[in-house]
Each structure stands twice: as C-alpha cells, then as structure tokens.
Fold:
Amino acid sequence: MGTAPKNPIAVMSEQRQTTLVNNQINIKMATKSSIHIKPCNVKSSGAHNRRTAEYMRNIGKSKIYIVPELTASNEQWINPGFGDPDLQVHYDNIKRMVKEKTGRAMQEKERERKGKNGKIIKVAGCSPIREGVLLVRPNTTLADVRKFGEECKQRWGITPLQIFLHKDEGHWLSGQPEAEDRESFQIGGKWFKPNYHAHIVFDWMNHDTGKSCKLNDEDMTEMQSLASDILLMERGQSKAETGKKHLERNDFIIKKQKAELQRIEETQRYKEQQVTLAEQELKQVKSEIRTNKLKSVATDAATAIASGVGSLFGSGKLKELEHSNSELHQEIAKRDKSINGLKIQMKHMQEQYGKQIRNLQGIHNQELEAKDKEISRLNTILEKAFNWFPLLKEMLRMEKLCYAIGFTKDMVNSLLTKKEAIRCNGKIYSEEHRRKFDIKNDIFKVEKSPTDSSKLVLTINKKPIGDWFKEQMEKLWQSLRHTTEEPRKNRGLKL
Structure:
C-alpha cells in the first residue's frame, strides 16, 4: 500500500473520542441506535412528516400518538438541489431518467416469473425513493442527522432528499413509569413516553447509470454502526453477539405495534368506563321515574277521593287535580322514551367500538405473523451463511475491531477483502485501555490464530494487537515511574 500519510488514521477526533469516554455510562442508559429503511409512499409520507392540518384532523381528536404541544420542537431540512419538494414530482422525474439511461421503463409493480425449478417467484418492483426511520436521543440535532445522511451519500451513493426530526410522538402510559425510565414526563397530569426519531427520505438511484443502488446486509450493518458513531449512541447488538431470536431492525416495528395494541386496550377501557357511567345515570333516572310513579298513584287515589267528595260537595279543586295528573303522566312518557333512545345508542356504541377493536387486533396479528415469517426466513439465511462460511463471524469481529481502532473503510477492505498487509502512521485507539497510542511505519495484517485455526487475529508487526497494547501500557507506566523517581535521586545532603 506504500507509505501512509502523516495525518492520523483515526476516524474520530480527539475531542469527540474524549466525549465518548466521558459519557460512556450515560450512553449505555440511552436508546440504542437503530435504522429501518422501507419503500417510501410518496403520496402519504409528506403529510405525516410535515404534520399538515388535514393529517392532524384525520388522525382524530384524541391524537393518540402525537402531542400538538410538542410539535414546535420538530425540525426539517429539504435538499436545496432537490428542486420541487413534491415527492411525486421527483418520482416521475426518476421514471423519465431511467427510461433515458436504460431504454426500458422502470418496473414499478411486483411481478412474477418462473424459476429454474418451475416454481413461480415473485419479484419486487423498483423502489427509487426510500424512507429510513432513525432512532435518536432527546438532544440530537438536525445537523447530526444531516451529517449521517451526507456520510451515507459518500459511502453508498444514496442521496438524502428530506429530513424530518420528530420529537412529538410517543404513547401514553397507563400509570407511573418504571424507576429506570428517565425519558417519560407528565403532560396534563398523564405520563407520556416519547419516541424520538428522524425520517430520512433517500433517492436510491444512480443517476449516471439509471440503476438502483445495491446495499447488502453488510452495508446495512455498517450503516447502523455509522449511526451509533455519529449520534453518540450505543449500537444495537446483532444475533451473533446476543443470541436473540429477533433481528434488531425489527425490534422497533414490534415495539411500536405493542404500543399501538396498548393504546387500543386503553381506548377500550375508556369506552367501557363511559358505558358504566351511562348505566349509572340510567339507574338514577329509573329511580326518579319510580318515585314519580308512586307520586302519580297517590295523586290518582287522592283524585278519586276528591271526585267522590266533589260529587257530594261540588269541590272547585277537582279540575286542577286532574290537569296536574295529566301533566305528570306526559312527563313520565317523555322520560320512558328518552331512556329507550339512550339504551339503543349505548348498544350501537358498544357494537361499533367492539368492531373497531376486533379489526385493529386482526390487522395487528397479521402484521406480527408476517414479521415473524420474515424474521424466521432471515434467521435461516444467516445460519446457512455461518455454516457455509465458518470464518464469517470472525471476519465480522475483525471488522468491528478495525473500526474501533480507527481504520477507514478502505483500510478495512484491504485487510479483510484483499487480505493485504498495510503500513500506517498516526494513532490507534484501544477500547480496553481507553487511550490512543502512536504508530510509525507499523505493519498491520489479519491472520489466523496460531493456537486456534478457526479464529482470526489482528497483528501489528506480526504481534497480536492485544499483546502490543499491553506492551505500550507497560512502557508508559515505566516512563511515568522513571519521571517520579528522578527527583528523589537528586535529594541528598548538601555540605
């Protein structure tokens, strides 16, 4: 590779690395970095991201997962080279570009083709515009997310078109938050759990070739590591490291679905409470009616007596009593009618809410089933890959170690892909000792472990990197001891 430049090879600056070390405990307590990318719905994405008035009206008066009082904290950025901010216009422009570059129309819809084994295979349509949901910290700025988007453009050629930082979404807790929860806060006497995240809309096309950018699983893994580095967040661990059944990129989706189910259950409890109050009111009305009916019976008896007396004595109060009795009967008839109407309304409300809850639960179960199938398929592929390529886990471990030391992507590629040795100058970082060490014309190489052929080891000057770091620390301690002992030797008796 030749002589490396004199500038340090570490990716992060000294100041940034110091910040990482000082905040190590706080970072571990924060939300882990995660990014989920899916095809962008150009018709509905803008309404949600921009919080349009029509969108806020359509989600209902309750605004279950959006707190309007916090919307002012949201931020947005539109690529100045984007032109028209309408995603549909940009989508149409991409279609014309693909036609000009390739001579073929862009395949937008899912299609079927017959495989070599005779089975029908479904081929997904092109997704020229994709949207990534990136988990962030409460103090993450729009500039941080823009830096992440620019780095994605440099590494993989995907261009950020729009960025929206949302700090007004989350879900309401049914009670007090857990003791370790430091993010939830009260709004109007209720506890709210925020879900800080950012939406990044990418142009996923290579405008020179007219073809879509191809990112594999390794690229997506690197993208998540990049997010954790730039946003100063703890990276979510992979299945190979944790042994979890689910993949990290699906955790956010499942968590959000569980929150939605919790919201449905809370809504159901609220409606049941309304029905209970209505039933109590109905009982009270019935009690009043029974009292009035008893009064009516007493009035009828008194009227009968008065009628008998009036026939004998000709009382002038008889007509008044008859008129009052008639009005009372009319009032009772009105209340009976009102009660019947209230019963019908309550029954209709119960049926309507029950139907809505059943529909939402059915959709939720279908989505969970689909995600479980996808996760199972990905797990099967991952297990096959580890069986076919025994050193794959070790190469992933070496990649993580190289990036932690401060190597660039090209240097990691030379070590792992090209299997070349590289000569470097500058500084390298040790996570174990939490400090940087100087290197000068030192040779790095990834080799098989001399004690275990199934393991890989990063060597510096043919010495394992861990042993080299220990030697450097011993030299540093010896130098410090020599510095402190020198003044003691000079302290003697003066004549």
Remarks:
- Residues 267-386 form one domain.
- The CA atoms of residues 475 and 481 lie 10 Å apart.
- Confidence is low (pLDDT under 50) at residues 1-30, 242-249.
- The radius of gyration is 36 Å.
